[in-house]
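Honest question from a wet-lab person: if I give you the sequences of every part of a complex, can you actually get the arrangement of the whole thing, not just the pieces? Trying it with mine:
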Amino acid sequence: MKDKVILITGASSGMGRATALMLAARGAQLALVSRTRARLDEAAGEVRRLGAQAVVVPTDITQRDQVSDMVSEVLATFDRIDALINCAGVGVLRPIEHLSEADIDHMLAVNTKGTILVSQAVGLEMVKRGGGKIITPVGTMGRYVMRGSVAYSASKWGAVGALKAMATEWQRNNVGITLLYLGGVNSPFWDHIEMRVQREKMLTVEDAARAIVYALEAAPNGVLNELTLQPESHQFI
Ligand SMILES: NC(=O)c1ccc[n+]([C@@H]2O[C@H](COP(=O)([O-])OP(=O)(O)OC[C@H]3O[C@@H](n4cnc5c(N)ncnc54)[C@H](OP(=O)(O)O)[C@@H]3O)[C@@H](O)[C@H]2O)c1
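Yes, you can. This is the full assembly:
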């Protein structure tokens, strides 16, 4: 990872932030992206304390102009992007009778459209510069479903479809696409979810970061397409 340029969305919190710190310890150069400058600056401070370079680019990934400006700013700083980690995402898990139109719009906008916009913009730059890797921890709700996940699953299955289609677009351009099906990860994601869950039994954000770093390092001459990592309580579901 030494001197690799890695763009992380959702870097202000949870597994995006944990991945930034793990990659900083390996000498990567990082572009940290989410909407909240103060939390990105705090993460960037930690990254720099570990001896790595970081640029902070506050961006709402649902807005194409902001995504385009963000990618230009990262390229102006580092000149290339070797890998994109798509950690930005939102979750509302609630029974179908309480699912609002705003919930549906919000999840589709961030998890599906936002992931497409960032992957499209960064992937096209990777094609120009000879390739790269796009790693997305879509989560197990991109492969399975559960009660309360109607719009969340739709948003994640949509992202999975889009990213698999991108892999076909770029299969001759050395752009590798990885989908990580992670089970529950104990992060601030769960702070506002009303469903009863046992957070202490979930994966940690460091477990998630290790899976992301593994996907980056596993196959220098190939691509790890898919990986499922579950807490022990949820094996094969
Ligand atoms: N936690 C789990 O159990 C779990 C399991 C599998 C997969 N996942 C998925 O993994 C990803 C990361 O989850 P997490 O657990 O790390 O959640 P988290 O701690 O809540 O972090 C979510 C991140 O997304 C950013 N974000 C939200 N809306 C955004 C927008 N419009 N534009 C740019 N950034 C935005 C947030 O930053 P700002 O608020 O600063 O914008 C934050 O940095 C999500 O896609 C989630 O669906 C989560």
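Two things worth pointing out. The longest strand covers residues 175-182. The CA atoms of residues 163 and 177 lie 7 Å apart.
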